[in-house]
Design goal:
mainly alpha, single chain, 5-stranded mixed beta sheet, 365 residues, two-stranded antiparallel sheet, 17 helices, Beta Polymerase, domain 2
Length: 365
């Protein structure tokens, strides 16, 4: 199997706990095809769905089709991820109690929010990085102070920090399993007026004293994280971790209705939903708004698999374009906002920073 076939194979495997058609197709492949498991491991690991792959194959009783040493390896890593997630849940609950005791209610986002709501059949399915939560504009600075007083400090310590629009710089507490991101926004400035704290707070869920997004907004944020925040819309790629969350959430809420509640964001979110529908093999719960633009988007998405070298060059050009665009935006903000000017001055007068940049450019000082 080539890369595309492996990607689609893994994607189908991720649906077999829900989709009988895909379950039958995967079993036939496992019975009749010599699967390149080394590539499957490589691709599923790169997409952060290796534990989810194992859990779905186990749930379908398909592990007997896999090499025994691979099953042992998958179980080992999945058990480690389960233990990590249990600690993340405990840490999140501790933070929730701390903040509630100070009359501040956090709304947990992304993977941690999914774990807290019990979205997955096995909590080991989801690989989680940071604990993300969002606060109102009033509570945001209070939350930072409370966490600092509780022992959290900057994960990367510098004398200056870039003025991040969405969240405070990542924080970490000694002996805690995960870093923490305190959000005041979840989106880049361009779309922040449409999908923000006020929008998601109005219908968030309260489960056992913990606030999380509604299932519809969980689904939207899973797409937004890639399409907007990680520029997936430009690259026309689809990380399976985000896609898997969208698939599981589509069993809890109407996916098409969820993306249609938005305005400027609807099209990029609908494109991702269409990609999920195709890669997961026409799953009914992932139905989307079919338009000419969607057809064009899917055409580009699929064409990128046929010539990996050309795709790599194209993505490099996009990366350069986005880098220049971001730097010009920073310079523009430096003209307007004092905090950006202070940050830029500190950076340019930092000898260590200048030395690193010269080294990256291949210039020896």
């Amino acid at each position: 199997m080539n890369y595309k076939e492996n990607l689609y194979f893994i994607a189908k495997c991720l649906t077999i706990s829900f989709e009988e058609k895909n379950k039958d197709e995967i079993e036939l492949i496992l019975k009749t095809t010599d699967v390149d498991w080394d590539t499957v491991v490589k691709v599923s690991t790169a997409h952060y769905v290796f534990p989810a792959l194992y859990c779905n194959l186990k749930h379908a009783s398909f592990l007997n089709y896999l090499p025994k040493d691979l099953v042992a390896y998958m179980k080992y890593l999945t058990d480690i991820n389960r233990e990590r997630n249990l600690k993340i849940i405990d840490q999140a609950k501790e933070l929730n109690s701390l903040l509630l005791a100070n009359n501040i209610r956090p709304i947990f986002l992304k993977g941690t929010g999914n774990l807290l709501v019990g979205l997955y059949e096995d909590i080991a399915e989801r690989m989680v990085g940071d604990i993300d939560f969002i606060f109102s504009e009033v509570d945001y600075p209070k939350a930072i102070t409370i966490l600092k007083d509780f022992g959290y400090s900057l994960a990367v310590k510098t004398d200056y920090n870039f003025p991040i629009f969405k969240h405070y710089p990542r924080m970490k507490k000694e002996n805690s399993i995960a870093s923490v991101e305190i959000h005041k926004e979840v989106l880049l400035e361009k779309y922040a007026s449409e999908f923000n704290y006020n929008f998601i707070a109005k219908d968030c869920q309260l489960i056992e004293g913990i606030s999380v997004l509604s299932y519809a907004n969980k689904l939207n944020l899973s797409i937004i994280a890639n399409q907007i925040n990680d520029n997936g819309f430009y690259y026309k790629t689809m990380p399976l971790r985000n896609a898997y969350d969208v698939f599981v959430l589509s069993k809890k809420t109407n996916a098409k209705d969820a993306v249609n509640t938005l305005d400027k964001l609807t099209n990029p979110l609908n494109y991702f939903l269409a990609t999920c529908y195709e890669v997961f093999n026409n799953v009914e719960s992932l139905e989307y708004n079919n338009t000419k633009k969607v057809v064009s988007y899917l055409s580009v998405f699929n064409s990128q698999f046929t010539n990996p070298k050309a795709t790599k060059r194209k993505h490099k050009r996009i990366q350069i374009y986005l880098f220049i665009k971001k730097r010009l935006n920073i310079l523009f903000k430096c003209l307007i906002y004092r905090e950006y000017r202070i940050w830029l001055f500190n950076v340019l007068t930092d000898k260590n920073w200048c030395k690193r940049k010269l080294t990256q450019l291949g210039i020896k000082k």
